[in-house]
């Protein structure tokens, strides 16, 4: 079955710097790659996703890139702010996102003021 | 806005008790999931359901069962709670062409 590896497990940056979180997946049939942000005491929330027919997607300060050949995808956050501090999870699905997702183990991002 | 509601934020139960965790979604979609979240292990799938009265085992179903009698409600059952089931439990729902919506989670402690 699918296996998703996520790195790093913790990341500390200064406010205003960029942060990059990387994930690799094993199943070449995977076609949907979402990213979730989990703040303390809350459930994960979808922040951005990308499908396999697209190489990059942006939403304000957040972008995701996908390299299907290498089977990896990355989350990029620019101009980080303290409110970006959270745990981020990547995930992959072979079924378009409406069905089972396999998650990475998470990255704890800390943005220092 | 779609909503997934978990009935309890915190629960403390004794070893051997039967525990019910309830989840309700208002999306009128079929797909619902139960995950547990543990430090360093991420989110692991326990059970999922794609339709009423339908259930499928996820990656770690041992010690758990589920019930889906109505489309909007998906219950996770710990038949005989054990201390190694102390965890954060997350319910999620999804439908066509959009990602999961998670509930706020239930932090279960088994003593």
Secondary structure topology:
The complex is a heterodimer of chains A (113) and B (111).
Chain A: E1 4-7, E2 10-14, E3 19-25, E4 32-38, E5 45-51, E6 56-59, E7 62-67, E8 72-77, E9 86-92, E10 102-103, E11 107-112
Parallel strand pairs in A: 2-11
Antiparallel strand pairs in A: 1-3, 3-8, 4-5, 4-9, 6-7, 7-8, 9-10, 9-11
Chain B: E1 4-6, E2 10-13, E3 19-21, E4 23-25, E5 31-38, E6 42-49, E7 56-57, E8 64-70, E9 73-78, E10 87-95, E11 98-102, E12 106-110
Task: Describe the protein in words.
Chain A is mainly beta. Chain A is 0% helix and 54% strand. In chain A, strands 2, 4, 5, 9, 10 and 11 form a six-stranded mixed sheet that branches. Chain A has a five-stranded antiparallel sheet with strand order 1-3-8-7-6, with no helix packed on it. In chain A, strand 4 and strand 5 form a beta hairpin. In chain B, a hairpin with a 2-residue loop joins strand 10 and strand 11. At the A-B interface, strand 5 and strand 10 of A face strand 5, strand 6, strand 10 and strand 11 of B.
> What is the count of DSSP helices of chain A, taking H or I runs of 4+ residues?
0
Give the strand content of chain A: over 45%
Spatial extent as radius of gyration of chain A: 13 Å
Q: Helix and strand succession of chain B?
A: EEEEEEEEEEEE
Low-confidence parts of chain B lasting 5 or more residues at pLDDT below 50? none
What kind of assembly state do the chains in view correspond to? heterodimer
Radius of gyration of chain B: 13 Å
Percent in helix of chain A? under 10%
Distance between the termini of chain B: 37 Å
User: How confident overall, as mean pLDDT of chain B?
Assistant: 91
- The low-confidence parts of chain A are none
- Give the distance, in angstroms, between the N- and C-terminal Cα atoms of chain A: 41 Å
What is the β-strand count of chain B?
A: 12
């Amino acid at each position: 079955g699918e296996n998703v590896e996520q790195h790093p497990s913790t990341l500390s940056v200064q406010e205003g710097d960029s942060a990059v979180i990387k994930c690799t997946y094993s199943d070449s049939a995977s076609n949907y790659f979402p990213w979730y942000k989990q703040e303390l005491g809350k459930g994960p929330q979808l922040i951005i996703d990308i499908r396999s027919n697209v190489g990059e997607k942006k939403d304000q300060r957040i972008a995701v890139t996908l390299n299907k050949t290498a089977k990896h995808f990355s989350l990029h956050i620019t101009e980080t702010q303290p409110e970006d501090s959270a745990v981020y999870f990547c995930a992959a699905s072979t079924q378009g996102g409406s069905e089972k997702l396999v998650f990475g183990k998470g990255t704890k991002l800390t943005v220092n003021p | 806005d779609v909503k997934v509601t978990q009935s309890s934020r915190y629960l403390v139960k004794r070893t051997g008790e039967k525990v019910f965790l309830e989840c309700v979604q208002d999306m009128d979609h079929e797909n619902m999931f139960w995950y547990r979240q543990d430090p360093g292990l991420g989110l692991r799938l326990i059970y999922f359901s794609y339709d009423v009265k339908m259930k499928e085992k996820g990656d770690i179903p041992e010690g758990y069962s589920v019930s889906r009698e109505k489309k909007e409600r998906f219950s996770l059952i710990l038949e005989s709670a054990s201390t190694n089931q102390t965890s954060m439990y997350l319910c999620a729902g999804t439908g066509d062409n959009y990602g999961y919506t998670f509930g706020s989670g239930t932090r279960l402690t088994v003593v």
